[in-house]
Amino acid sequence: MLPSSIQIVPLHPLDFAEFMDYLDDHLSDNGKDGTAYFQPSPQGQHAFSPQRAAAFRGALDVPLSQHGWRRAWVARNATGQIVGHVDLRSHTERWSAERCLLGMGVDRAHRKIGLGAALIEHVELWAKQETAVGWIDLQVLSNNTPAIRLYLRSGFKITGEVRDMFKVDNQYFSYTDMTKYLYANQH
């Protein structure tokens, strides 16, 4: 059970610079000190580019009825520090409005306390209440077994794998595709 001192709240536009600082720090763990690679990028290359940050920020303002939307939430501890995040965004392909993509991460000091599961549960409830989305998809590096275990426990199913999708730091990484139907209990 998630500690009551941690609250999941929508990412406010005024907090976007703080969020980018959190993401840069979070991404610095990618493949470092026994942490699984969770992004297909080399160690030490962890800053969001200005273009990528602008695209993320801009998508937060796109109405849900339009292609290209994104919504994000942050988990804050008792002192207000961002300790996790989750986002949902429309697929890049048009005509896929009933599906969206999940992205998420948890700060190194707040893993294994149920925060990842709470973030997923939060966005699933939001998607059911606020959108026409029926499916949440995600892609995860296949070596990231802690994340895959979390997604499986949360009801996601593996739908495929692209072998050796990336070559990063002279290592090959496969990409696992996963999905969850939000209304499975109604069939």
UniProtKB/TrEMBL annotation:
<dbReference type="GO" id="GO:0016747">
    <property type="term" value="F:acyltransferase activity, transferring groups other than amino-acyl groups"/>
</dbReference>
<dbReference type="Pfam" id="PF00583">
    <property type="entry name" value="Acetyltransf_1"/>
</dbReference>
<keyword id="KW-0012">Acyltransferase</keyword>
<dbReference type="InterPro" id="IPR000182">
    <property type="entry name" value="GNAT_dom"/>
</dbReference>
<feature type="domain" description="N-acetyltransferase">
    <location>
        <begin position="6"/>
        <end position="183"/>
    </location>
</feature>
<dbReference type="InterPro" id="IPR016181">
    <property type="entry name" value="Acyl_CoA_acyltransferase"/>
</dbReference>
<protein>
    <submittedName>
        <fullName>N-acetyltransferase</fullName>
    </submittedName>
</protein>
<dbReference type="InterPro" id="IPR050832">
    <property type="entry name" value="Bact_Acetyltransf"/>
</dbReference>
<keyword id="KW-0808">Transferase</keyword>
